[in-house]
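Q: Joint fold for the lines below.
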Amino acid sequence: MTIATPKYHRRVLVNRVLMSLSVLAALVGLTALVIILTTLVQNGIAGIDEKVFTEMTPPPGSDGGLLNPIYGSIFMTTLAVIVAMPLGVLAGTYLAEYGRNARIAVFIRLVNDVLLSAPSIVIGLFIYEVMVRQMGHFSGWAGAAALAIIAVPVIVRTTEDMLRLIPDPLREAATALGAPRWHVISKVAFQAARAGIITGILLAIARISGETAPLLFTALNNQFWSIDPNQPMASLPAVIFQFAGSPYENWRELAWAGALIITAAVLFLNIVARLFRSPEVKQ
Amino acid sequence: MSVADEAPQTAAMNAVSRKFARIDMFYRNITRASAFAIFAVLVGVILSLYFGAKPAIDKFGFAFLWTEAWNPVKENFGALGPIYGTIISSAIAMILAVPVGIGIAIFLTELSPWIIKRPVGIAIELLAGIPSIIYGIWGLFIFAPLLQTQVQPMVIEAFGDIPVLSTLFAGPPFGIGMITAGVILAIMVLPFIASITRDVFDSVPPVLKEAAYGLGCTRWEVLWNVVLPYSRVGVTGGFMLALGRALGETMAVTFVIGNTHRISASLFAPGTTISATIANEFTEAVGDFYLAALFELGLILFGMTFIVLLIARYMLLRMQRRTGG
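A: Joint structure:
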């Protein structure tokens, strides 16, 4: 027996319209993102040749590459991660293992969230005030420090989340066998959450690889080849920022090429991080 | 029983226990110190912003917040232009991104066949990680010229005679401006909103939805009457997080906002946001007050995102309490 009153038809119609709207929304949103990615790839590939990876940033009008910003970005990102990793993992361990739900841990979690969502340009201002002003000049150290401060909250969050996923009976079993607390944490909990923690570090690397604002007035930029971290240091995002806003054709081409390189690196890191995590999640 | 009376085995065991206790204490302290270091960084950020801004705070006082002037020569600065731009561009972004994001979430949770669900879901999450400068240069090179040559002249002509809309969409078609920045921001926060909304929708107990279906509800009625009210708090928390992101965004906006410190009624007019101002003018700022004014802008921005985050956190906490998670 079918109920075919006008009211029923109206409800079905409303449902169809709104579901179509949501499909339309999905299409619009995804199309916009696909368009952005395709133009990025098109324009980026046009600018990429082996010179991009072997020559330094050119003056306007000449040929050149992106060697010094690529080096600068890799250097500062690596340094930032080396500093942020132990700090972040240890702090996340405290929140997940020692602090748990104590009031102090709840407070630190809130502080961590605030730092996590702080605008990255504000972090740049902070490092400018405490490092650049004190040292008297811009430097690669300052750039790395700013990136480290951005990476730490990400690592803390993911480390804590991953450690919390490990069931307590595992820890209790180790304790029952006589293991001291630090054994339980490092040899049991860490080993079990290892993949997740590495995922978090990879995601943090991906995040800071693309950050521009905090580098603008900490590491500044450097048009020459420089491996001295005590001097201003070039970085891919800063160079893209400078070149894209300029009126020179070859600079703009290099900006697109650099943008493609960054996006490829970030996507690669994200995909690797996901692959790392999947086997654990399937358990 | 003194130590000398212990059997060698017990003495050895006790020595090991003491050593373990020392190492335990070491690990406990080092992790606690790391956690406190994070607190120290936050305090450092707030203090450095305040002290960096102090010259400007002393000079301008609260009037800084509602002065539109921005005169580096006369050293007269006001934050109204940047604050207005930050709020309006973020508002445009949220107005555009929230419906589309919810639509994507509905599509992912209710409508898409499983073969599409996983790839699209993963694609959304990957897209959330794209650096914001990419959106910025796309906007500058592709989107803004498109608006300038095709869309904006059309809109200006179409709305030319209608009272309210003609001021809202008035002015020469620059291409760059408030609405361009708002749209780019919307595209940027879209994956974020879609992802969080989808996670919250997924957390609705299937029992509730099945009960509604059992009563004969259509899909939309289940969404509107069961899923959305249940997830209202979590979804709003997610929106606030996206809003915080949009407020602080620098690179996506700097290229296309036009960088004028003027407040204009038209959405097509150029403007500026707090982060775009800081990014563009910091390295050129001469004089103590200029730099301090920029620091004060940073302090204001930090305060805004801080408040938004607190609200978001509070709402997510309420959602957790309800679901018992």
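Q: Anything notable?
A: The first helix of chain A runs from residue 6 to 47. The two ends of chain A are 46 Å apart (CA to CA).
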